[in-house]
Design brief:
Number of helices of chain A: 8
Strand content of chain A: 25-35%
Order of helices and strands of chain B: HEEHHHHHHHHHH
Shape of chain B: globular
Helix content of chain A: 10-25%
Strand content of chain B: under 5%
Oligomer: heterodimer
Largest sheet of chain B: 2 strands, antiparallel
Chain lengths: 376, 304
């Protein structure tokens, strides 16, 4: 086999991919298209099917139905070693009986690439580990092993690089540093990255596009900012950051806005930011878009107001304070306030009103169930 | 020394000696005492006997303490064919046992890994022969292979064997019996290694463009080497000294005699204790040399 290095990453297409295990469906008719050169994150809680999806793309798991295309070629029936895909495994999976350099050169040797050792050296230089080339993997720290795993995959210039929670085993500081490096390397080599993670900050920090997965299907997909600003389902609203969510019957709906009757309070959202306009509708707002006031604010159709309630908890988290406000008949509301010296000085038990601008509300396509629920 | 290979791979950083090290030393004492009494004493006695000279009285089985190094030369000259045969048989039987055991061990340790019931049943099958005395089992094979047995008659009837050919007493019968008796000793250590094999490494190999065969050759097999080394040692060493299978009473004949049979004959029948002892010492020395060369080679050389 000759060395058919691809200069750039290729696109990935999943056509109604399905994976059934005895007793449950891990991936449920998933359609996905990742453009070449993109940093794509598949985000979801454990058991949502994201790792199974990644393993099917790598060829380590056979789909029950559907097709996988890489650069337009159907690879569904190809064995893992025939696919132009490399994986950075969650536990790194470095070969313990080989030196770091031999680990990195392994794929090159299998493909009969010229000067495998030299290329391995160069790849180790990229991750700044050339001085450890002769060591065994188990003599390296977790962060170093992670970089070796990355070099071992990247050196092959795969059309698609799969990252299976590669930063999960690292401590916070190292993880942040590796996130920055990983992103820099991806921009530098121009490969297509598919990153599987349950860490929403990691996904939003690095990826161009994030797909939030739940129960074997994609709930919502888009740029991190868009996903955060306008979650379309209760799951996304709660999984990506925090949300205050209120459920009520639609009271009025026109071209400009939609309002629900939430326990006697009128809560509105812009018509362009709602998914559903009939029956029971859930309206949400991010805690940092919410503010509280010691006196009842003047009535304003552009502002949603709830209250009065009492502050039950104040948590200092550094850049911001997190307040829990309990409103009788309404429930608990979370408010973040930046510590810029402008937020009102309040104490536990103080009576406050909560408000946010209508333009910051978002309307969900579904209703929160059990766990995600805040107030109803 | 050799059995280090049996344990899990040593951690990279050795632990610092602590106060518990002293306790461990005390706990070691009974073992050391046992070894001194039951290993070193007979060894010393054996070496002493191997250097004895015949008593001037000329009585059979009577020897005096001496420094008769010539006993070794005599033993080597007289029994060279049996010594050579012992190691050839041991080598052949070990290779065959490895070829049979590895797939069994792989199936139990890797393929059946997530099926505890199947795994337990297969492991029981591997050790089931131990439930019956090795002598009885070997004797059973003697009957199966005997000249008027159902097996031989059938083979002769269908023309796979000549009318006047036989199995008992041939090299084939002895090697067959040796392989049969020692397969569990080969299978279990290899199984222990393969059972610990991290299958994610195999997946990583496939992900890095290695096909199934290459993945086996470069990842699975090297990582199972501790088991292979233990298994081959646990097979090769006892076979080299085995005297049951190759004896005339079981599957062998005078043409298949191994060192063990010669030692037995010299000790118990001819009562030539010095020659028997010299042979024993020679066997031991040869095994120590062969085994240390083997372990050193497989231990320090890059396993690829």
């Amino acid at each position: 086999m000759s060395a058919d290095f691809v200069a750039r990453g290729q696109d990935l297409e999943l056509e109604s991919i399905r994976k059934e295990f005895p007793g449950f469906v891990a991936v449920d008719d998933l359609d996905l298209k990742i453009p070449a050169g993109e940093f794509f994150a598949l985000l979801g809680p454990s058991g949502c099917g994201k790792t199974t999806t990644l393993r099917m793309i790598a060829g380590l798991e056979t789909p029950s139905a559907g097709r996988i295309l890489i650069g337009g070629n159907d690879v569904t029936d190809q064995k893992p070693h025939q696919r132009p895909v490399n994986t950075v495994f969650q536990n790194y999976a470095l070969f313990p009986h080989m030196s770091v350099e031999d680990n990195v050169a392994f794929g090159l040797k299998q493909r009969k690439v010229d000067n495998p050792q030299q290329r391995a050296q160069a790849a180790l230089e990229m991750v700044e580990l050339q001085h450890l080339a002769a060591r065994r993997p188990q003599q390296l720290s977790g962060g170093q092993q992670q970089r070796v795993a990355l070099a071992r995959a990247l050196v092959n210039r795969p059309a698609l690089l799969l990252l299976d929670e590669p930063l999960g085993a690292l401590d916070l500081k190292l993880r942040r540093q590796m996130q920055i490096e990983l992103k820099a390397i991806q921009m530098e080599v121009g490969l297509t990255f598919l990153h599987v993670t349950h860490d929403q900050e990691e996904a939003m920090d690095m990826a161009d596009t994030v797909a939030v997965m739940n129960h074997g299907h994609i709930e919502q997909m888009g740029a991190p900012e868009a996903l955060y600003d306008r979650p379309k389902t209760a799951f996304v609203a709660k999984f990506l950051g925090q949300s205050n969510i209120f459920v009520g019957e639609v009271a009025e709906a026109d071209d400009a806005k939609l309002a629900i009757n939430f326990k006697g309070h009128r809560l509105a959202a812009p018509a362009a930011r709602v998914e559903k306009t009939k029956g029971k509708v859930a309206i949400g707002v991010r805690p940092e878009k919410t503010s509280f006031h010691p006196e009842k604010p003047a009535s304003d159709p552009a502002v949603n107001t709830l209250g009065p309630g009492t502050i039950t908890d104040i948590r200092f988290t550094g850049v911001s304070n997190q307040y829990q406000i309990e409103i009788p008949d309404v429930g608990e509301i979370t408010v973040f306030a930046q510590n810029v010296g402008k937020s009102p000085v309040v104490e536990l038990g103080a009576e406050v009103w909560v408000s946010w601008k209508v333009e910051h509300s978002f309307g969900l396509a579904d209703l929160p169930t059990g766990e995600e629920e805040v107030a109803e | 020394m050799a059995f280090v290979a049996l344990g899990p791979q040593a951690p990279v950083a050795s632990q610092k000696p602590t106060k518990t090290g002293r306790v461990a030393l005390y706990l070691l004492l009974p073992g050391l005492f046992y070894l001194g009494l039951f290993f070193l004493t007979p060894l010393f006695s054996l070496i002493l006997t191997s250097l004895k000279a015949p008593s001037p009285s000329g009585a059979i089985g009577r020897y005096d303490v001496a420094l008769e190094i010539g006993n070794y030369g005599f033993a080597l000259g007289q029994y060279a064919p049996q010594i050579f045969r012992s190691f050839s048989f041991a080598l052949i039987a070990t290779v065959i046992a490895l070829a049979i055991s590895y797939p069994i061990a792989y199936f139990i340790g890797v393929t059946a890994r997530n099926r505890p019931l199947l795994k337990g049943m297969l492991l029981t099958l591997v050790i089931a022969p131990f439930f019956i005395s090795m002598l009885l089992r070997t004797f059973a094979w003697k009957q199966i292979f005997s000249n008027d047995s159902w097996l031989l008659n059938t083979l002769k009837d269908v023309g796979l064997m000549g009318a006047d050919s036989y199995i008992i007493g041939t090299d084939f019968a002895v090697i067959f019996g040796l392989v049969y008796n020692f397969i569990p000793f080969m299978t279990l250590p290899i199984y222990a290694s393969l059972d610990r094999l991290d299958l994610r490494l195999v997946e990583a190999g496939q992900d890095l463009y290695a096909n199934s065969f290459t993945t086996f050759r470069k990842i699975t097999f090297p990582l199972s080497m501790p088991g292979v080394i233990s298994g081959t040692l646990l097979t090769f060493i006892p076979i080299s000294g085995d005297y049951v299978v190759a004896s005339r009473d079981f599957l062998g004949s005078t043409d298949t005699a191994m060192i063990g049979n010669v030692v037995e004959a010299n000790f118990l029948r001819i009562q030539d204790y010095p020659t028997a002892s010299a042979l024993s010492v020679l066997l031991m020395a040869a095994i120590v040399i062969l085994v240390s060369a083997y372990v050193r080679r497989s231990g320090t050389e890059d396993l690829l």
